[in-house]
Amino acid sequence: MNVVSRGIKNALRSPLRSGAIVLMLAISIGLILSMLVARSSVNAKIEEVKATAGTNITISPAGVMGFSGGGDALTSEQLATIVSTAHISSTIATLSDQLGAADTNLTASLELGSFGARQQRFDSSSATSTTNTNTEAETARPARPAPTPRTTVTGTTDQNSVSTDGNKLNITSGESINATSSDLVALVGTDLATKNNLVAGSTFTAYEKNITVKGIFKTDNKFQDSGIIMPLATVQTLTDQAGAVNSITATVDSSDNVTSTVAALKTALGTKADITSQVEQAATSVSSLESISSLALAGVIGATIAGSVIVLLSMVMVVRERRHEIGVIKAIGSTNAKVIAQFVTEALTLTIIGSIVGLTMGILVSGPMTNSLVSNQNSSSSTTTATRGGMSGGPSAMFRGGMNQISANFIQVTSSLTPEVFIAAVGITLLIAIIGSAIPAWSIARIRPAEVLRTE
Amino acid sequence: MLVVKNLTKSFSSASGEVQALKNVNMTVETGEFASIIGKSGSGKSTLLSMLGALDVPTSGSIEVDGVDIAKLSASQQTAYRAKKIGFVFQYYNLIPNLTAIENVILALEFGGMPAKLRKARAEQLLSDVGLEPDEQLRNPSRLSGGQQQRVSIARALANKPAIILADEPTGNLDSETGKKIFDLLHQLSRSQNTTILAVTHDMDIAGKTDRTFKLTDGKITA
Fold first, then answer.
1. Cα atoms in the 13 Å half-sphere on the side-chain side of A76
2. How would DSSP label each residue in A409-440?
């Protein structure tokens, strides 16, 4: 029998008390593991969401959303300001327009449907609503033109920005266009091309000009596949909007610089532009996850302190109770180090048994606990995200896709017990035993056998 | 040989300084069985603490085989207690959750004996003091007072000490058992040439030892 086996034997000396200590420790250690798992899982998800957010910033004219809203288009001066802003590595400028039946010889491939028809009626009625505010006036109002489908034209400096998945635009036939030119050329969506029997090399009329089809593209998005992509400068010229753009997507050199770049752009452009970034949106989305992470950290610290206090008080009590025994052991020749080692072993034994029970409990409850924490936070934050408006057209589609991914990720936080988390939990457990043994060890070293034996 | 010269021990108390031992001088030869008698508070246990290096004298010297133990460092005193001294207490002071044999092995461990030799040595010692093999595996609570004191003696003898210090070794036993324990100590001092210094109130027992020191108010008076 050596100092270790004596320590282990002493730990089991009083089964009832040892059981109570082990149970309390197990609860603490189980909580530590659960909180570590929750924190690790949530932090991983935060990083994932931030990584998904990318480094793009979208700048739109203030008040404009797709083909709705008001405001003035962005100018070439504003574009130049954006391009010269620090940390912006590239920009994609877009100007969108819609071709009615009078503007082109093409037949729109997009069916209006009840939703599209209602939108056009609304636009039409809005134009005259300022002078017709009562029922009599309504009946006197001239008949509105029947809704007709339109074809969307997107002028862009990068045709790939129209791709809905963020990848290179899929050209199914023909070739791509030089989007930085001012040539009368276009890429036509596959649905529109089929509707009008267009192939690469065909021509069509728009804005009273003959436009050459350079290629046919396919995005699997019905709206996009019913549209036309042309060089930005060409659309600006054809629509008499020299230098005007209605959307700019700026790419920042690093995700770390997105927030500061957004702030710089807001300062430079003032109230004339609406500036949004996926990182900002993601930051809003992950704020509740960050709250969970902080809560979990507080839980880890709290449970560690509780565990340490349990071991500490238990060992202080044990040392006080066995003061006489310690005096005798010292009298017959034990060194302080040996007595301390015996009590530390005793504390470690209790802690290890508590750890085995606690870690098992932690493994069982960490998943449900993490999911419970996240779902509680998620239900409150989803209400907020639901009130956000949508966007349509060009780069905004890419942005919307990204946000959908972020939302999907957000609700898919899965708890995972990684080796690192497990090692951290075991490390904290050992810390508990060491802290819990430190003061009793000091107390043991101060016991003088002569004093103890004198009190017999 | 044990030589005590001008040993003084003072304690501070609420009522001022108390001198527990006053210029104590004594010599005990190797293998001698000596007793210390005296009334309660005469300083017997304090003297035993000094001799066992459990406490440090205020002044004077305690020489064991020519080494002044009062001048040893704390770690040297610990080693001295482990290897040179064996304690036998009135209330046995066995470790309650260890068996009789484990209590003896404990002392052997502190004395530095290799682990593989301890069990056989402990069995032999317990057998020498009259404990049956099944009794050796019992915890102290399952042994009689006399048996516990035998274990205590076996533990004291474990490391072949130069001196055994016994504080009222028969004080908690009935007279018959006390006599047997005394006889055992006496026999051991003879067979192993171990110096034994026993504190006792029992004049019959004191009368049978080789030498008796009477302590009165901290002084050796006879």
1. 7
2. HHTT------HHHHHHHHHHHHHHHHHHHHHH
* Contact assessment for residue A285 and residue A381, using Cβ atoms and an 8 Å cutoff: yes
- Number of structural domains chain A divides into: 2
| Phi, psi of A208, rounded to the nearest 5 degrees | 65, 25
- Would you state the structure tokens that stand for residue A312, as one six-digit string? 């500490």
Query: Could you tell me if residue A61 is inside a domain?
Result: no
A243 touches B: beta carbon within 8 Å: no
CA atoms within 13 A on the CB side of A107: 6
Cα A285 from Cα A279, distance rounded (Å)? 10
Contacts of A448 in chain B (CB under 8 A): 54-55
Nearest to B102 among A1, A335, A448 (CB): A1
For residue A113, the 8-state DSSP code is H
Query: Interface pTM (ipTM) of the complex?
Result: 0.91
Query: Is A137 part of a structural domain of the chain?
Result: no
Residue A406 lies in a domain: yes
Q: Quick one: A21 and A98 in the same domain?
A: no
* Tens digits of pLDDT across chain A (456 residues): 688 888 888 888 888 888 988 898 888 888 888 888 888 888 888 887 777 777 888 888 887 666 665 678 888 888 888 989 999 998 999 998 888 888 888 888 887 777 666 666 555 554 444 444 444 444 555 556 666 778 999 999 988 877 766 678 889 999 999 988 989 999 999 999 999 999 999 999 998 899 999 999 998 888 889 999 999 999 999 998 888 898 898 888 887 788 889 889 988 888 888 888 877 777 777 787 888 888 888 888 888 888 888 888 888 888 888 888 889 999 999 988 888 888 888 888 888 888 889 888 888 887 787 777 766 655 554 444 433 333 344 445 444 544 454 444 444 455 566 777 778 877 887 777 777 777 888 888 888 888 888 765
Q: Using CA coordinates, name the residue in chain A closest to B168.
A: A456
Distance CA A23, CA A18 (A): 8
Pairing between strand B59-64 and B2-13? Answer: antiparallel
Q: Measured between CB atoms, does A15 come within 8 Å of chain B?
A: no
**Which residue of chain A is at minimal alpha-carbon distance from B95?**
A325
Query: Quick check: pTM over 0.80?
Result: no
Are residues A15 and A81 part of one domain? Answer: no
Q: Contact B145/B177 with Cβ under 8 angstroms? A: yes
- In the CATH scheme, what is the code of domain B2-220? 3.40.50.300
Say if the Cβ atoms of B87 and A1 lie within 8 Å. Answer: no
Examine the fold and report which residue of A245, A275, A297 is the final residue of a domain before the chain moves on. Answer: A245
The answer on A334 and A213 residing in a single domain is no
Of the residues A188, A216, A245, the one at which a domain ends: A245
A231 with A331, same domain: the answer is: no
Domain ranges, ordered by start, for chain B = 2-220
Each residue of A164-192: b (16+ CB within 10 Å) or e?
beeeebebeebebbebeeeebbbbbbbbb
Domain co-membership, A85 together with A221: yes
- Tell whether A102 is within 8 A of chain B (Cβ): no
Query: Which residues fall within 8 angstroms of residue A52, CB to CB, at 6 or more apart?
Result: A278, A282, A402, A405, A406, A409
> Domain residues for A443?
3-52+285-454
Distance separating alpha carbons of residues B188 and B164, to the nearest angstrom:
10
Task: Output the CA torsion sign for A108, A111, A117, A123.
Answer: negative
The number of angstroms, rounded, from the C-alpha of B77 to the middle of its chain's C-alpha atoms is 15
Specify whether the CB–CB gap between A22 and A28 falls below 8 A. Answer: no
Per-residue DSSP letters for A333-379?
Answer: T--HHHHHHHHHHHHHHHHHHHHHHHHHHHHHHHHHHHHHHHHHHHH
Query: Measured between alpha carbons, how far is A64 from A177 in angstroms, rounded to an integer?
Result: 28
